[in-house]
Every structure is written in structure tokens, then in C-alpha cells.
Amino acid sequence: MDDEGLWYFAFGSNMDSGALERRGVVPIARQPATIPQYRLCFNVPGLPYLEPAMASIEPRPASAKCPDVHGVAWRLRSNEWKNVVATEGGGLAYRTLAIEGLLLGDGTAKSCTFMTLVAWPTITRAAAPSVRYRDLLLRGAQDAGLPQDYLDYLLALPAHTYNPSQFGASVPGARDLAVAYARFWNTNVLLGHALYPKNVVVGASRAECLRTLCATLCADGDTVLIPAPCSDEVLIGLPPGIKTLFIHNPGWQHENALPYSLELLKETLQTSGDKVKALLLANPGNPIARSLDDSALISLLLFCQRHDLHLIADETRITASFPEEGRDSPSCSNFARLASSVLRLNLIQLGCDPSCVHVIWSVAEMFGQ
């Protein structure tokens, strides 16, 4: 691969330039494109209820009444393509594919070899995307100037709407909300230790909480470690002056184990050359929705403690994932049987400084926007 880069064919959320910017990718050029005899599909596992499936492409059956997939061809440098692969979950949610297609422009079509990412593994039966995800694709396609008939096709796609139960009356004021939040978790979840309102900070959104937290912990130029795969949604909220360093291990297979070895973490710290202040962990992961088990979380907590790192656990989607049947007492509520959360661990007994452990949680993600 030469320094002039390659053409990356984006058909999903990466059609939006903002999605690439959040991944630290600055394309050289952009052009509408299409892949003949392939169609858009939604067969990448997402998060239950909220984001049922993400986009991929597959050969289009001759009988299918849908257009050839269109997308955005981004000209990327080799290191930026590697960043896209790592943050999209190359080897886990997606695999790389070289494919022949057409660059479109000024009424002409030019043959081109693209690199792209296709589903692996896939959902047995394709699901409908969420309304949010479908609209994200539509905005990216509109911004790229894709043909109107393809925009109409995207707009007409069936989309999933999540209708959660209502969560009582609204609670006025941040202090009252902090009290209600602490009471909710202390009452409904098997916590490792009590959660006090004084340890709860309320923000307008998940992104605002992450932005404020990182700005408090880090100075401009400091680095945050982020395990890949990582959705661009996880990156929203990072302050502009904060650097990101992605950790990628394509050999991750075990369902609930660490997606990388502690040796890889240590090596990354030693060779980064930057001042690393924190590890940002999405649990469950986004994409592919895998949750870490208690032993994996404990390993990360102890690692961060040894290396003087803050652990930021983004658990905004944790209520969309439940552990295997029978993990806890059958009498426990569904909330009590949530997938592993840092809040379920006793940090003092583990020898960890609680002031260096931060959990981000969102009422909106659980009970609806």
C-alpha cells in the first residue's frame, strides 16, 4: 500500500464525515460510489432493542427488488484505513474485503478497486435498523450527493422503534436526581458497596458527562486508551484536546473475556510516547454488545491501579444485556441480574482507589429518549 492511500467504500454510518472525524480520520478525497450486484443489508449484531443491527453488504440475488448498494468512497492514507478497521471491529464484527466497484461523478462511472468492511459474524436473519441508525445513513448519503432514487430507498427502509416503559414522574433538579439515581441502584442492583448521592454527578447527556470528566482528569495533549472495536458513538463527548490511542486484538474470541491481553496493554503504555491518563471502556461493547465478566473487569481495575490510570466505564448500554440464566438468585429482579458492572464490585476489597474509577450511565438509554 503506497503513501497515496486507497479508496475505502463506506455504506453505513461512515458515509457521514463526522463519524470519521470522531475516529481521528481525515480523508484525502470523497466521491459517490456504487458496487454492482451487491445490496445493503443489516446483519451485524447490535444492541438488543435499542440498536438491533448494523449495516453490511452482500451479493444481491437476481430476484431481489432493491438497488445496488451506493455509498461514499473515501480516499484514505494507509494508517487511517488501519484506524477505521480497528475501531469498526475488524476481525470481530467485520472482515476486510477488496471489491470492484464504480466511482461516480459528473455523469460518468469509473472502475475502481475498493477496500471495505463486511459482516463477520452475521445475524442468521437480518433485522431492521433503528430509526436513529437509518436516519444517520440517510444524512450521510444526502451530504455525499448520492442519487435521489437511492435516498428514497433508504428513507423507505423498515426501521425499528424502541418503546420502553415510562419511568415514573420526572425528578426536578440535579440534586434530587442524584438522590433518586443512588436510591434506584442501591435498591434494585446487587452493588459491591453503597452508592451515595454525593458521588453522583448529573449531566444533560452521556456526552456531556464524558466531556466534563475527561476535561477534569486530563490536560490538553493527554491520551485516553480505548479498546477496539469502538463505535464512533463511544467517542462522542471526548474533548478536542484529548488524544486517543486504540487497542486492537483481532484474536478476541472468548465471549466475556478481555478483548486484549494485559501484556498488550502494558506494551501499549510503554511504547505510546504520550502521557496516558485513563482507559475508556465501553461495557457492553459497541459494536457487538459483548459484556466483560467480573474477572475481566477486576483485571482491568487492578491494571489501572498499578499504572496510575483512571478507569472510565461507559455502561450506558448495560441494561440492554443480561447474564446467563441462573447466575444470581432467581429471586433477584432483572436489574439485580444485570451483566457485570463496575458498580457490582467492591473496590476497597480489591485494593483500588474509588476516586480513580468512574462509571457513566444514562437514564435515556434505558427508559427512552
TrEMBL record:
Which residues does the annotation say bind substrate?
Y8, F9, A10, F11, G12, S13, Y133
Q: Name one Pfam family in it.
A: AIG2_2
Q: Could you give a GO molecular-function term held by this entry?
A: pyridoxal phosphate binding
Segments forming domain Aminotransferase class I/classII large: 173-316
Q: Which domain of life is it from?
A: Eukaryota
Q: Which residues form a coiled coil?
A: none
Is DNA-binding tagged as a keyword? no
Q: Locate the active site.
A: E88
Q: Which InterPro entries match?
A: Aminotransferase_I/II_large (IPR004839), G-Glutamylcylcotransferase (IPR017939), GGCT-like (IPR013024), PyrdxlP-dep_Trfase (IPR015424), PyrdxlP-dep_Trfase_major (IPR015421)
Q: What EC number(s) does its UniProt record assign?
A: 4.3.2.9
Keyword Phosphoprotein part of the UniProt annotation:
no
UniProt keyword list: Lyase
Protein's UniProt name: gamma-glutamylcyclotransferase
Q: What is the lineage of its organism?
A: Eukaryota, Fungi, Dikarya, Ascomycota, Pezizomycotina
